[in-house]
Protein 1
Amino acid sequence: MNTQAGDKVNQILDAAFQVFGTQGFYETKMSEIAEQAGIAKGTIYLYFSSKEELYKAMTERDFQRYLEELHKVVSSEGSFEELLTRIGRHHFYYYLERKEYTRVFFQSPNNDPNMWKMLRAFLQEYVSLIEQLMQRERLQAPHDLALVFSGLLDSFKMEILHSPEMGKEQVEKRISFLVQLFLKGCYELSE
Amino acid sequence: MNTQAGDKVNQILDAAFQVFGTQGFYETKMSEIAEQAGIAKGTIYLYFSSKEELYKAMTERDFQRYLEELHKVVSSEGSFEELLTRIGRHHFYYYLERKEYTRVFFQSPNNDPNMWKMLRAFLQEYVSLIEQLMQRERLQAPHDLALVFSGLLDSFKMEILHSPEMGKEQVEKRISFLVQLFLKGCYELSE
Amino acid sequence: MNTQAGDKVNQILDAAFQVFGTQGFYETKMSEIAEQAGIAKGTIYLYFSSKEELYKAMTERDFQRYLEELHKVVSSEGSFEELLTRIGRHHFYYYLERKEYTRVFFQSPNNDPNMWKMLRAFLQEYVSLIEQLMQRERLQAPHDLALVFSGLLDSFKMEILHSPEMGKEQVEKRISFLVQLFLKGCYELSE
Amino acid sequence: MNTQAGDKVNQILDAAFQVFGTQGFYETKMSEIAEQAGIAKGTIYLYFSSKEELYKAMTERDFQRYLEELHKVVSSEGSFEELLTRIGRHHFYYYLERKEYTRVFFQSPNNDPNMWKMLRAFLQEYVSLIEQLMQRERLQAPHDLALVFSGLLDSFKMEILHSPEMGKEQVEKRISFLVQLFLKGCYELSE
DNA sequence: GATGAATGAGCCTTCATTCAT
DNA sequence: CATGAATGAAGGCTCATTCAT
């Protein structure tokens, strides 16, 4: 793929991210994406064979970026607690950037098996990265802990639904809270 | 609403639960629900003004039941650990019963504000119930802990996606794991 | 199929015959057929699953009628020459009634195998009917003669293309001419 | 038109013949023709103003070649019977070479009047050539006989639809059969 | 109240044609 | 001359909703 074609592809994916992200798969019209991308409807089909395919590609790119950043975080220097905090920060800002998108995180086309395959692959890699961290800390049941920690992080989703506006300070407090809980359990928390 | 009308309403809601639950909002046709309910398409509109309305009513009833059961659990006798375990069990089996539904948990009609209002109300009440439990245990930051605990429970969703088949034994182990982590943090776990 | 449904089906088939007949399969829009039938676009799909299906059904009904009439003709009393004449008349008026339709006689959807199967079945039955006549006359190679005679009749198609307007008298002359040729060959014709 | 341009034109017409011939006018995409011709889509439009125009040009060239060969046949030495046989052979092999094309012989764009004008002109010339032959034999009603003979030849189309595979021997038998019938009528045939 | 035939707005996708390079 | 990326009009089909019976 040469530069121009790549540019167009990304231009479309950016538009798709915007529109799918705010409206969800089903409420999005291809014409809206085209308009957002500043191109004609038909042009999308030069690069993506269908609406489903476009959605999948868009999500895939997004997940890929998420994983790349997560990878950097996990590989960075720091204590266990610091790393957990960074992961939390990463996760939170990911949701925050996608505010509306968050709502429809799981609102993908139901019946596209490719979509599900891709989603599974993402989750696997995602959990695996966090698992590595647990292993380095020589914790027991690192896989389970990875799952649980990602569950904890996902509680952000609920919080964003509750109170969409959060200051930087508050965010840091939430993250610290989660990490402390994860490390010491509920009794040893001092807010 | 007389008894008969109530019956019909529930009959429709049952069908809606089945079909919406397995196919998601957008992939479900009103005719499928009618067929599942054993009535004619038009009849649905005697009781619900639109597809969105029906979805909302169906979800509302489902959430109501969830809350009722959760209420019983929270009000039941037992140690803090036991109660947390029961809540976990309740949550897990809720997801399990809805297996496919899990997939589309958030796949509600995007643009219906009533839907979002209702969802917010549910979450509020849901968290509030767990918060009470935390308060009774005289924990600090009970609201935050409630949020976090519900986040932990939601990690089941991810596990069901990973490995759809889980025996009773495994389930109990998972729940115990979550509760222990919540109580003592990651270092004091022994699997 | 009750009376009403049958009526609607025929109403649609009539409209389809008109529009497909004059415009051909590809140039016809479903909306035109709906308009011609005085119903809504969607209604057609209650009775026919697709444009191809409708075309096939329309053609099938038309062929069926053709065969029924041909059957009557072949079964009627009269000398061999008289019967051939009647068949010719039948064939000619069939084309004439379909003037425009004639143009597109073979303009069916190319890639629908059902369509081709149906067409083959029609041709087989059609030739078979004429073959019976040849057998009754104890002619040699009745099947081949049937094929050839139908080829002769089809030369009407070409004539209609040449001179679309033909009086009754002229028609009778053409038919007589064809039959005489078939009976005696080209040398014994006296126009 | 210089040699190179002529080459390109013929290159496109050859491709058009292939693709239109097997798929029919409506099912053919300009891009397929371009691909078959080994050129870019846009290039076609340097030589032909539209799909219809290209189809017409392709058909015209094809018909022209048909007429040229037919002319040679009609002008060749031989008895009347021999000439009829050669015409039959020519006609049959024309169809056979176009096997699939046969299917769509009349599947030209419906609403292009130029197309119809051209087709009429072809038929006229075609019949006229055969008519000359009839005149040379001093037959009565040479024009009508020409029409009828061409109708007879067209019965090949039906036979190819019935049994697509025909050996050389069978072909000769069919042709002989047709010619004999034309010469002597149905009673004097011996197969 | 119940029905289900009828409606028609709406959207994905195709593909002939154009035009900047 | 040649290219092929871009265009956008057009149409088949779906399905939530209505309403005469």
Protein 2
Amino acid sequence: MIDPVAFYKCLADETRLKSLIMIQLEGELCVCELMAALDETQPKISRHLALLRQDQVLLDRRQGQWIYYRLNPDLPEWVKTVLAKTAEANKTFVANNLKNLCRMGDRPERKNACC
Amino acid sequence: MIDPVAFYKCLADETRLKSLIMIQLEGELCVCELMAALDETQPKISRHLALLRQDQVLLDRRQGQWIYYRLNPDLPEWVKTVLAKTAEANKTFVANNLKNLCRMGDRPERKNACC
DNA sequence: TTTACATATTCGAAAAAACATATATACTAA
DNA sequence: TTAGTATATATGTTTTTTCGAATATGTAAA
């Protein structure tokens, strides 16, 4: 059960919507990757992700020093559809941000520093 | 072209989201019908509908003293999908409001007074 | 043209959301 | 243990949103 108004408040902010779209497209992202892609401060990203986690839209997982966020697979079907369609139809909205996205998983030589 | 953040701000308020869902389900509703269904004041309904009109989500049409609001048929496909899925999946969210909905079109004997 | 009804808009106050800054926690490697 | 990196949270402030109340506009009927 999810409150539709609360869900849409999650999407009604540029930082959160871009984070969600990029996570939808990439599968999983950590805070420092989002900081680099969105060019925003750490507390700002962290605060918005905390909100998405509290509303059960995202799940988090720690791996070493990093905390990765992903979509909650138990979301209702209609919510998954909304998120998928939104990401698919708004790739240009995050195009410049995706350019600045460096995936740490793609660079195992960097064991101890983010982007 | 529609700004996805602005679009989701439209959905991020109980009055607006319920209005949109009911309009999606009913096809077209006027202000006084929404007032009765949502049990809210006239300026409040009117103000929220004005916002939805400004953002091109709704179109309005005057018929006599009443102004009917309907979905803008020229919205992008992904937006229409989001609205349709949201309405379909959240009928219980507006169930009590639909109970209080009196469609003036169904009562042609009332030529000069709303619900 | 007066009266009633439907809707829109304005304006100031209240509530909510977002922010920057500072600080706390947690993990890693030396 | 210490230093460095990543993330979270607390706090006070600013911005945005929402609201109620009053008022204005437009239509219809008498």
Protein 3
Amino acid sequence: MDWKTGQTRIMIDPKLLRQSAAEVAINLAKRGYVFDSAAYQALDERRKTLQVETQQLQSERNSSSKAIGQAKAKGEDIAPLLAAVDDLGERLAKNESALGELQQEIADIEYDLPNLLEDSVPEGRSEDDNVEIRKWGERTDFAFAVRDHIEIGESLGMLKFEAASKISGARFTVMNGALARLQRALIQFMLDTHTSEHGYEETYVPYLVHRHALVGTGQLPKFEEDLFKTDDETPFYLIPTAEVPVTNLARDTLFEADQLPQKFVAHTPCFRSEAGSYGQDTRGMIRQHQFEKVELVHFVAAGQSSAALEELTGHAELILQRLELAYRVVALCAGDVGFGSAKTYDIEVWLPGQEKYREISSCSTYNDYQARRMKARSRNPETGKPELIHTLNGSGVAAGRALIAVMENYQNEDGSIRVPKVLQTYMGGLEVIK
RNA sequence: GGAGAGGUGGCAGAGCGGUUGAAUGCACUGGUCUUGAAAACCAGCAAGGGUUAAUAGCCCUUCGUGGGUUCAAAUCCCACCCUCUCCGCCA
């Protein structure tokens, strides 16, 4: 917290933290996060004392200065007044810097706090404890030996990992011809569906962002190692998801009540360093440094976010339904919910090549966590006072993984791929890729 | 890349060392007037923090961000970020 402005950059309501530190600790413990509420409160007590003292000195300085100004205006001798404030500045500076240090100490703790979980988040420590909410569609049944997307793509000559590694090393892909077009078709289909049927506004955003944008959405300061950045003096970061630029559209904004909700959809590439995921999904297109994604973002008034999360998740699901891909929706358990999220649904699509459901979308409500960091507010029509908005986002859906799902689920015995009905118009009427 | 101008309340826009947290206009809220509405007129109207039972008072902080000068900074100095104009280069 910045003591001068009182502005906090943490994600949990600072008042709640001070008044109900123990309750906060209980909530965070569900994630497996240990928050020493007693130590925090002790620090905060010291802060209060010091702050009152400092403000008292500031008040003295202000009234003295005012008196000097008035005396000067009347042409009186100000020398005795100046003498009276002689050491005030020094005492004040001392107090201010002590308070600043203490505030920094508190801020370091606050920065490290993940968001509060909603009550409906299931308990659990790892992804094994996630709870399946619903399933849709039949897993594809094959009368022949199933191939994974790598085999299918390489034998078609349209998916080239070696070519990519010559240029950029591991975790990149080169695609050609109908397969490259199929990914574009998926993206177009998703954008069209969300804009024309779900009321989203299509948005084009920068792929390079400044640091503060990432602090706003919560990737920073904690997850620096997951991101690519330039080595400029003021570096640009490559976006790990469109969530970052799109959500930051609400930064420093005070919405009028009738301007909400707002829904945006954007297609962007996403760049992730995938540090710490060595050995995971090293083959194929599942986990890349660069992938395409269509992202959905909602800005809603406080109190509307639970309904919005269900709505947003449904929008992502419809894409898979139209593509006739089997999937399931799981509620992430407390230990698996992301740092800034209050509640998350993952949508997992059936991949025959892996004989597994794999994540293709992650839909989260952040409640006021991101809004607090971004200073995104709306005017409460009843009180006339600004209050933090709620932000949500979800993939609708990840295009690279959707491409894998189509390749594997729509494969034929001869190695060709049928084009899903809803994509054929985007493929110039093509029905089979061979 | 070079040269200049600028960043002030929800918005527009004054102020350029001292009763300025900030003129004015728009928007918004309440009132007068009106059958109702509009117009006109009157009044109110920034945010965050501390203290507190309090959304009452009182106090602190905030004029892009961070430093500095000063008894005193929106106003002066430095750095950075951002915006605009012109020149160069370029898809």
Protein 4
Amino acid sequence: MAQKLSERQDNILKFIRRYVAEHGYPPTIREIGRAVGISSTSVVKYNLDRLQTLGHLRRKGEVSRGLRLAGEALSGQNVIEVPLLGYIRASAPLPAYDEFSDEVVELTLDIVREPELVYALRVQGESMRDASVHDGDLVVLRHQQTADPGDMVAAWLGPEEGLTLKRYYPEGEFVRLQPANDAYQPIIVPAEQVEIQGKVIAVIRRLA
Amino acid sequence: MAQKLSERQDNILKFIRRYVAEHGYPPTIREIGRAVGISSTSVVKYNLDRLQTLGHLRRKGEVSRGLRLAGEALSGQNVIEVPLLGYIRASAPLPAYDEFSDEVVELTLDIVREPELVYALRVQGESMRDASVHDGDLVVLRHQQTADPGDMVAAWLGPEEGLTLKRYYPEGEFVRLQPANDAYQPIIVPAEQVEIQGKVIAVIRRLA
DNA sequence: TTTGACATAGAACACGTGTTCGTGTATAAT
DNA sequence: ATTATACACGAACACGTGTTCTATGTCAAA
């Protein structure tokens, strides 16, 4: 049975877990002390050394933030958080990529091989049915403002038309946004009225 | 298309990923510089600022190790390893669930809500095209030996017919395994010649 | 030729960071 | 009464850490 921790030591562990979850790296000695009400860095060090002796964490001496919790998963290395920015068809353009996103979906690098600038949208509607993209599916996109002909893209068409998911075909000074469903008409608009906001790189559908 | 990185910037990102995987916290400016051959801390800072501008990482100013990679997950807890057991259409039945699998695909609990008894297969062929399952897709299945009518299942039909992916319809003492593609005939066999090996719970398709 | 963007580099600096030292209290065991 | 252990605390220190400043070079575009 694990040796009983003092209340302070328990608070330290809880704080470290929260801090890592929020920041992605561990706290400093002084941050720990401020959080749990220890005014002396040597007391924080003493308690961290105790927690290390008891197997709750590991410290690397003389480097900043040199601690990690016991049992912390390294497999998280393969996980990415993809901002879930909303829905096709939305009534606002997607936010700037570096803006805060409330909601994320966790995927892995087995699904998204290059995790830069990716986000996800949930599909509403069946305009891309013949491309096997259905209502309720999750599409993963890479933020980019250009596309190749035939790419499936998220395009912002202005406040009236909103955000749409279609195949992109430039045609002179127009752009044709082609549905993959005969029930929908292609959208043909002047190129300057279209803002490409991302290209689809994966589709994920849950059935159960 | 993402803006091209210089070789140095690419090396910096690779180093940071390796360092975080090994240490559990990010490297310092000086550790990055030593690793990629930059002798000046201001050049490291310049490159990190550029990588941040391009969306590859985020920095928190004036704190040690205050950086994190874009899309880096905050927790490994949500990851599961799903055995990737082979292909539809295989010439052998699937192994017992607890047998060793060489190959896995990592998914998250956002994709597979109940991780018990799941495995994945890669689709070969287009027999389920009208169900939006295409050649090359990854299907995730839950190992089970029963199914409800209409479920998409992996069924083993014996050494001649192999493993197939179809919709399952029991019809008296027969079973109809229904493709979702008019180019394929339904398979109607005595129920005792069919072994249900799993039911599809998710479909994942990568486009890029 | 000039300009601007990008990239490099070293030096200096401010301050963050962890460690060491000396000292104290409380409690339990001997 | 003494000893050992756990836990506490502030001060001082050495050095790690990130930023700023200044200078320079390359390259492409105007």
